[in-house]
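It is worth pausing here to work through a concrete case rather than discussing structure prediction in the abstract. The textbook approach is simple: state the sequence, then state the predicted structure, then interpret. We follow exactly that order.
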Amino acid sequence: MAIRRKGSDDFVGKSGRTVTYRNKWGDLVQRTIGVKEGSKGGEFDNQQGTALITYILKPLKSFIEVGFKNPPKDKHWDAYNYATSYNKINALQGTYPNREIDFNKFKVSKGDMPLPLNAKVELVNNLLQFTWDPDLQTDGNSEFDQVMLVAYMRESNKAICIMGGAMRTAKKDKIKLTKFTKPSVIETYIAFVSNNRERMSDSVYLGQIIREQ
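Step two, the predicted structure:
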């Protein structure tokens, strides 16, 4: 049942298949609940896509709070909403029931700093060794910027994240991997963040590392 709040012209509540409510920003929202006849394919496609993005972002939540902290000013988003929306639009491929993540297009950071230059990663024993060009001649880069690194383990849905690593001028940093009992596929990313954490670069996908054990 929809209810008119005292002192307000707004109806809130449920009426038939329509629900009206105010979100946390005070906006009045009205939407239809349930799946409309003839739209199941699109609904399932959207639901599977949302589930995939949510699943992968969960172990990256702390990193995302830094990497996506500057959402568009016209959006009522926090960092997590921003990351979810961006990756749903850009990093999903296929259609229901075969939706998949395109890790090359997936982002763990989004910002206006210049992209990391000539970044690479290699597996050496139990370490992921990252290298890059400091690129200090490019406007927007500073010697005080710090590297941000992600190693996402697909089989376990776990991630090792560095949000404030080595300085840009160090040219290298590393992630020590935990012990594995079976082969693992690791997706790797690099980005940079300013010293005051107010600016960051888009993340760059460095490829897939296959660890045999």
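Step three, interpretation. Residues 45 and 96 are 5 Å apart (CA to CA). The helical segments are 40-57, 61-67, 79-90.
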